[in-house]
Target: 2-hydroxyacyl-CoA lyase 1
Amino acid sequence: PGSGAEGEAVSGAQLIAESLKAQDIKYMFGIVGIPVTEIAIAAQAIGIKYVGMRNEQAACYAASAVGYLTGRPGVCLVVSGPGFLHALGGMANATVNCWPLIVIGGSSDRNQETMGAFQEFPQVEAGRLYNKLSVRPSSLEVIPAVIEKAVRTSIYGRPGSCYIDIPGDFVNLQVNKSSVKYVECCPPPPVSMAERSAVSEAAFLITRSKQPLLIIGKGAAYSHAENNIRKLVDLSGLPFLPTPMAKGVVPDNHLNCVAAARSMALQHADVIILLGARLNWILHFGLPPRFRQDAKFIQIDICAEELGNNVRPAATLLGDINAVTKQLLEEFNERPFKYPSDSEWWKRLREKIMNNEERSKELALQKSLPMNYYTAFHHIRELIPKDCILVNEGANTMDIGRTMLPNYYPRQRLDAGTFGTMGVGLGFAIAAAMVAKDQTPEKRVVCIEGDSAFGFSGMEVETICRYNLPILIIVVNNNGIYTGLDADAWKEVLKSGDPSTCVPPVSLLPNSHYEEMMSAFGGKGYFVKTPEELQNALKASITDKQTPSLINVMIDPHSERKKQEFPWLTRSSL
Ligand code: ADP
Ligand code: MG
Model:
């Protein structure tokens, strides 16, 4: 704990910066303005990295990704009223994803409240719906304690977002250091373990299972459980299925990965082990017809309130995934178990995997122009580094990207997540590039966006260029949302009248040159239409490790996902 000499004064802005630093916060994203500019300056002066962005929403997505990637929250700094409101999407997305985040919002001066002050808004009240904690320090003296509590709350239990409201008059107000209540850095969350009887029950169910399935969720990725889960898979021989952001906890090319037989695995498994994945829409609520009526669930989660949602589990293991996985390993150490690789279940899964991979391969090798999604992704997969951090959003671009682009390392896929939020991509990419720069400078960030998804935060390209982050953005451009029109069809449509009455709501301007947004700010832009052009642009962007680049890939506006037995990332799947 720091304690200043008697008489030494400190400003609100400095106190906030010092307290964040004391809580081991390393990154701040935001947009400055009245009354928070001094906070950003103080943070930077003390060694917190500050990234000024172009919209608070993208800044908030960026800060939340830092929390997921590092386990320590990033901070989003916003001005009062509209600035705060723009960040709500990021707070909601973080909380729904179970990712830690700290948002600091300036608000009106206390003596102007209820008078119609500049950008006045009931921010603490509004923040409650989106945050685990939404508070305003009652005085400067308690700022360190409030910041410690917010950071602790964001990472203890089920992670989520926390909001701290700072009245404008606090920022330049001074107090004597001796009256400040300094607080030490909060330690990482205490590790909780499951009841022994529940662990034995789970092990028993697994041993008895004929058609077991291990589902790995992003909670497992967040808890850094990869080494133990990998051991569990290798030791037990269980088939496993990662949810989208859990890809890479165990590498996608592991022999036991049944992602390519997803529907079948879910539909016929008799015992399902959930490692940090909720039975929400992503997993069809755990209910028929996607699951067997008599399927037995073994649920492992850190959040007690999650246990039993939608389905009554056969075994509930409340605890930290990494610790509970270790408990399961110990149980299997005492009573060795290996699920036979020559079982009927494995035979059926393997067959399905082969068939499905064959179908994707056929589509990927089609020679016709414009390219379809599978062809574009095939070339992208061939040329991007195996260890790159993948950001992927859009409708088809994300769904097909998930199946076509393998992950070999944990926490290296960031997408629209549980909330299905489009527009997260550029913020996530910026956060990933900032973290990579400090931790794994050789790692590239590749951000693959649908043309619609890219549009939500396109101006962050300027941010990328300003901070010289060597991100590769690939816009998979089909001239629209889900599908679009080609240039000829577009001309025809315009003939029929006012665009607002005849342009299909899914359409975007055909052949938009998004790559020029990148060249406008000094990065490299490529407009590509053929596989050869795509390959050349990819090679050039990957080789150049310094310059941000954007490859605008024109694909067939009618290209779609291959027929699904069970479409799931669409509302119609319900
Ligand atoms: P996915 O989208 O991959 O299915 P979800 O976000 O639905 O994953 O589920 C993640 C789950 O992981 C949440 O229920 C959350 O409470 C849980 N979780 C987060 N961190 C931990 C942890 N350290 N140990 C156990 N469970 C965790
Ligand atoms: Mg599109």
The pocket of magnesium ion (ligand 2) is lined by residues 450-452, 478, 480-481 (CB under 6 Å). Residues 568-574 have pLDDT under 50 and may be disordered. Residues 430 and 464 are 7 Å apart (CA to CA). The first strand starts at residue 9 and ends at 11.
